[in-house]
Amino acid sequence: MKVTAQEEFGLRCLLQVAAATGDEPVTLTEIGSREAMTVPHVAKVMALLRHAGLVESMRGRSGGYVLSRAADRISVLDALRALGERLFDAEYCERYHGPDDAACVHSGACSIRPVWSQIETIVSDVLRRTTIAELLRTEEGAMRASLDVRQRSSALLHIEPK
């Protein structure tokens, strides 16, 4: 499975909104600076997430984006479907049949299609069970661990010899 840049950046943006403290909206500028993305790129991704009903935009001076529902009720699958295409669907062979517009010669008895379909089912099940809240907890834990390591390293560097 290949995750597109748009899907990756979209998940990162969604995590930034989910990580916001309280009900304070997160601005495009804040998301962009935290994720090293341009504001127009963040705006494009956030528009897709808003259109899918995963975030809401708040207008005005203190506006920005908030989650439309709790982070534990938004699955990674919800986000990826808002940001890109499914890994495989039943109409795939009709859409991508070849350069000469002829139908796939294997459309009637394709031995590969069931494999892609099964992979889609398995991957979708994992993504459906994984929530934005879980990703956020994992990320927060990793950030705390990284901070602890940096603090310990800094403390070791400042030990005075006797």
Walkthrough of the structure:
A hairpin with a 5-residue loop joins strand 1 and strand 2. This protein has helices at residues 5-19, 28-35, 39-51, 76-83, 92-95, 113-129, 132-157; strands spanning 55-58, 64-67. It has a domain at 5-85 and 131-157: Winged helix-like DNA-binding domain superfamily/Winged helix DNA-binding domain (Arc Repressor Mutant, subunit A), CATH 1.10.10.10. The protein has 162 residues and is mainly alpha-helical. Helices cover 56% and strands 5% of the residues. The longest helix has 26 residues, at 132-157. The chain is built from seven helices and two strands, in the order H-H-H-E-E-H-H-H-H. It has a two-stranded antiparallel ribbon.
CATH superfamily of the domain at 5-85 and 131-157: Winged helix-like DNA-binding domain superfamily/Winged helix DNA-binding domain
* Percentage of residues assigned to helices: 55-70%
With strands numbered from the N-terminus, the spatial order across the biggest sheet is: 1-2
Which segments are poorly predicted (pLDDT under 50) over 5 or more consecutive residues?
A: none
Q: What is the CA-CA span between the terminal residues?
A: 56 Å
The computed structural class is mainly alpha
Overall pLDDT: 83
Fill in the CATH topology of the domain at 5-85 and 131-157.
Arc Repressor Mutant, subunit A
3D shape: globular
Measured by DSSP, the beta-strand proportion falls in under 5%
Q: What's the oligomerization state?
A: single chain
Could you give the order of the helices and strands?
Answer: HHHEEHHHH
Short description:
The protein is mainly α and 162 residues long. The chain contains seven helices and two strands; from the N terminus they run H-H-H-E-E-H-H-H-H.
